[in-house]
């Protein structure tokens, strides 16, 4: 079909023949759904049927006509005539503007109508240009472009051939219009699918951000979404510190998006993509590394990838931070991708504000919760008392668990543990009332049952709501030589568990009735005598009703833990083990508050820590070593043991870090000071012993046991029922100097 014609071929002779050819071409065009292919099909059919030398199909692109199909033109014709401004007077543009067939039978006619084309070499001498017309709105015609057909020799045009060409052009125009509609429909469908996918991703992000209650969780969730949803090589989230005039990086994922490390600050006034996005409250898009180096030379290094996009975190008209994204290749994003990132940034701004408010609310709740618990415990002569309290960390409200230890009279002490109904302020008011009612009643009444009776009456009198109640276990303790006499009364609370020095373990007391439900509660006193080495553990339902990942309970957890407590373990260790077991059973994420109260009679084989002891349970996360160092340093300085401060904190940090990295459970920390030594114990839920490694001077870890060998007076590892304890001792200076 690309061979120039050697003879003039006219349109088929009869009307029937012409109609058959037109219908055949129309069927061919009907099978085409692509604009360029439809144009090529039309040009090829016209050249073949009329033995034309050349053919061009132009489409209207708004301000110009553009070739979409060409056959048989002179070399370079597509480049020379490929894009024609509509306001230039040429045969093709005139046919489009006037929406009329333009016939140029020879060069003389062309030069007469278009003098500026005189002498211009063309592949053809005779031309016909037909506008590609389709029906428009309200009967008006739309012109899609033009079909230009040329013959090597002059070419007169009779009515039959003209009608034949117009019919072919009409079917071609309809095919092109269908192809445009088809392409528009496909583009709209793809756009709708992309929009739906982005909405789905934003909804998923929104759901995940709703579950993120602190800044760290918000940051991790947002950065993971950006990398997954947008295919980013890296991302970082920054927050404005107005007081210091800086952008502080909250976190990063993937390859670096700006120089420095997490926590590094960027001055808001300094030129950087992130600070510019914040100051202007508008996205900053850098297509590639070259543009980044040209616009922000100070930030050209230290950033991997090519394209960089920074969008502000805007909330209530203020830029609160920036979301920075780096792409592995050049940035070719369109409006859709940029709008999606801006929507993600807006969600992050809202989530960070929620997290800030949540953390503040949780701090207020924690402060109020601490005010409802005793600031310090009184010393019970000849007895050990240890407590543990862990509120649900993800909840920003006051819980209902409480405990108290107080002096009733000379030689008598009250110990109480309980759980009130509800959460928040109502629980706080009921907790305060319960605690102080028990204290007051204990000084007036003769026994624990009478004390709980007074508390029951107080709850009923104060209760405007039917569901206000409390479960309580109360001890009246009288220390005696070598032990203690205990009167116990339980009102609907989990029964305490007694561990005898000989190893026997079991619950004690009578369950009784929860308080605040009936005018006269069904509660009774039970007397217990504790001897040397005996331990009595009280706890709330956060221990006995703990659920694992499958939702199953471990009803035997307290008794199982106490069975595994070694002989000579003091009250602190018993409380430590109970708390850690409840946490580990729930994979470190308790669903309810946990309170533990342990009363123990020392035995002759116990170590004597004359200067004092302290204990702390750590979450087993990256913050644990720093918290452990602060606790050990504060304890040693408070007891005048500054001389061993540096070595003790170093060794503590190494051992706690080892537990965090390898055990991945809650970590128990206990510090003891005797007359001549300091002992630090670090317990975790893994039974694997630490492994000594050869020292690598380039390594940043793995040196803990080597340091223990070189710096500790003595150290060892003790297997426990649910893990291990690594302990070390240091020689301490005398108490007087």
Q: Estimate the helix proportion, in percent.
A: 25-40%
Instruction: Output the strand order for the largest sheet.
Output: 3-2-1-6-5-4
CATH superfamily of the largest domain: PPM-type phosphatase domain
Please summarize the sheet with the most strands: 6 strands, antiparallel
Looking at how many chains there are and whether they match, the oligomeric state comes to single chain
Q: Supply Rg.
A: 43 Å
Quickly count the helices: 18
Assigned CATH class of the largest domain: Alpha Beta
Number of strands: 27
Mean pLDDT: 83
- Kindly name the structural category: alpha+beta
CATH architecture of the largest domain: 4-Layer Sandwich
Q: What distance separates the N and C termini?
A: 110 Å
Q: How much strand?
A: 25-35%
Features:
single chain; 737 residues; alpha+beta; Beta-Lactamase; Phosphatase 2c, domain 1; 6-stranded antiparallel sheet; 27 strands
How would you describe what is shown here?
InterPro entries: Bact_Sigma-Reg, GAF, GAF-like_dom_sf, HATPase_C_sf, HATPase_dom, PPM-type-like_dom_sf, PPM-type_phosphatase-like_dom. It comes from Vallicoccus soli. This is GAF domain-containing protein. The strands form 5 sheets. The chain has a 6-stranded antiparallel β-sheet. Strands 9-8-7-12-11-10 form a 6-stranded antiparallel β-sheet, with helices on both faces. Strands 13-22-21-18-19 form a 5-stranded antiparallel β-sheet. It folds into 4 domains: 15-184, 2-Layer Sandwich (Beta-Lactamase), CATH 3.30.450; 212-366, 2-Layer Sandwich (Beta-Lactamase); 376-606, PPM-type phosphatase domain (Phosphatase 2c, domain 1); 607-737, Histidine kinase-like ATPase, C-terminal domain (Heat Shock Protein 90), CATH 3.30.565. It is 37% helix and 26% strand. It is of the alpha+beta class. Helix 6 packs parallel to helix 10 (335-371), helix 14 (557-563) packs across helix 15 and helix 17 (645-662) packs antiparallel against helix 18 (704-711). Mean pLDDT is 83; it is low at 1-8 and 694-701.
């Amino acid at each position: 079909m690309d061979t120039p014609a050697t003879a003039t071929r006219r349109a088929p002779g009869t009307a029937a023949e012409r109609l058959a050819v037109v219908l055949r071409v129309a069927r061919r065009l009907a099978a085409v759904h692509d604009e360029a292919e439809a144009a090529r099909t039309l040009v090829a059919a016209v050249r073949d049927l009329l033995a034309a030398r050349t053919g061009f199909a132009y489409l209207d692109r708004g301000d110009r006509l553009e070739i979409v199909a060409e056959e048989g033109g002179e070399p370079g014709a597509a480049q020379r005539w490929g894009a024609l401004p509509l306001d230039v007077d040429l045969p093709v543009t005139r046919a489009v503007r006037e929406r009329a067939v333009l016939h140029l039978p020879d060069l003389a006619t062309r030069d007469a109508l278009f003098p500026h084309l005189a002498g211009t070499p063309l592949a053809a001498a005779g031309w016909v240009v037909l506008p590609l017309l389709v029906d428009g709105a309200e009967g008006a015609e739309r012109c899609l472009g033009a079909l230009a057909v040329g013959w090597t020799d002059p070419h007169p045009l009779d009515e039959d051939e003209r009608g034949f060409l117009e019919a072919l052009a009409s079917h071609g125009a309809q095919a092109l219009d269908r192809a445009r509609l088809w392409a528009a429909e496909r583009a709209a469908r793809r756009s709708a699918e992309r929009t739906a996918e982005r909405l789905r991703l934003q909804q998923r992000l929104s759901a995940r951000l709703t579950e993120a209650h602190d800044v760290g969780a918000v940051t991790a969730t947002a950065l993971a979404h950006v990398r997954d949803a947008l295919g980013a090589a890296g991302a970082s989230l920054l927050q404005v510190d107005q007081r210091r005039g800086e952008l502080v990086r909250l976190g990063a994922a993937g390859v670096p998006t700006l120089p420095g490390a997490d926590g590094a600050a960027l001055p808001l006034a300094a030129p950087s993509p992130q600070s510019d996005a914040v100051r202007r409250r508008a996205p900053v898009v850098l297509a590639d590394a070259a543009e980044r180096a040209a616009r922000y030379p100070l930030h050209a290094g230290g950033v991997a990838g090519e394209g960089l996009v920074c969008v502000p975190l805007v909330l209530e008209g203020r830029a609160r931070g920036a979301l920075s994204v780096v792409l592995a290749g050049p940035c070719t994003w369109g409006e859709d991708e940029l709008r999606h990132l801006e929507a993600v940034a807006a969600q992050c701004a809202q989530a960070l504000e929620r997290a800030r408010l949540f953390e503040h609310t949780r701090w207020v709740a924690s402060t109020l919760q601490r005010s409802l618990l005793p600031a310090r415990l009184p010393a019970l002569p000849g007895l050990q008392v240890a407590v543990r309290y862990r509120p649900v960390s993800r909840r920003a409200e006051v819980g209902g668990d409480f405990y108290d230890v107080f002096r009733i009279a000379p030689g008598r002490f009250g110990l109480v543990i309980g759980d009130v109904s509800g959460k928040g302020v109502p629980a706080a008011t009921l907790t305060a009332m319960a605690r102080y009612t028990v204290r007051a009643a204990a000084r007036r009444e003769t026994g624990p049952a009478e004390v709980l009776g007074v508390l029951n009456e107080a709850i009923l009198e104060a209760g405007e709501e039917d569901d206000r109640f409390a479960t309580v276990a109360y001890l009246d303790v009288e220390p005696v030589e070598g032990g203690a006499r205990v009167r116990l009364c339980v009102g609907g609370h989990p029964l305490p568990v007694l561990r005898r020095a000989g190893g026997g373990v079991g619950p004690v007391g009578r369950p009784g009735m929860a308080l605040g439900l009936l005018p006269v509660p069904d509660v009774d006193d039970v007397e217990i005598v504790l001897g040397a080495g005996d331990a009595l553990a009280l706890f709330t339902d956060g221990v006995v009703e703990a659920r694992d990942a499958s939702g199953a309970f471990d009803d035997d957890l307290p008794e199982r833990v106490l069975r595994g407590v070694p002989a000579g373990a003091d009250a602190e260790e018993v409380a430590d083990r109970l708390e850690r077991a409840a946490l580990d059973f729930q994979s470190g994420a308790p669903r309810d508050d946990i309170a533990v109260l342990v009363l123990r009679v020392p035995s002759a084989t116990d170590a004597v820590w004359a200067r004092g002891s302290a204990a702390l349970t750590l979450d087993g996360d990256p913050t644990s070593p720093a918290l452990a160092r602060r606790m050990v340093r504060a304890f040693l300085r408070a007891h005048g043991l500054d001389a061993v401060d540096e070595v003790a904190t170093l060794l503590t940090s190494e051992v706690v870090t080892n537990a965090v990295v390898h055990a991945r459970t809650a970590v128990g920390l206990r510090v003891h000071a005797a007359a001549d030594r300091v002992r630090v114990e670090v317990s975790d839920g893994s039974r694997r012993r630490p492994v000594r490694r050869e020292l690598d001077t380039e390594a940043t870890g793995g040196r803990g046991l080597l340091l223990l060998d070189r710096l500790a007076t003595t150290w060892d590892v003790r297997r426990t029922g649910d893990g291990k304890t690594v302990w070390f001792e240091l020689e301490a200076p005398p108490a007087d100097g």
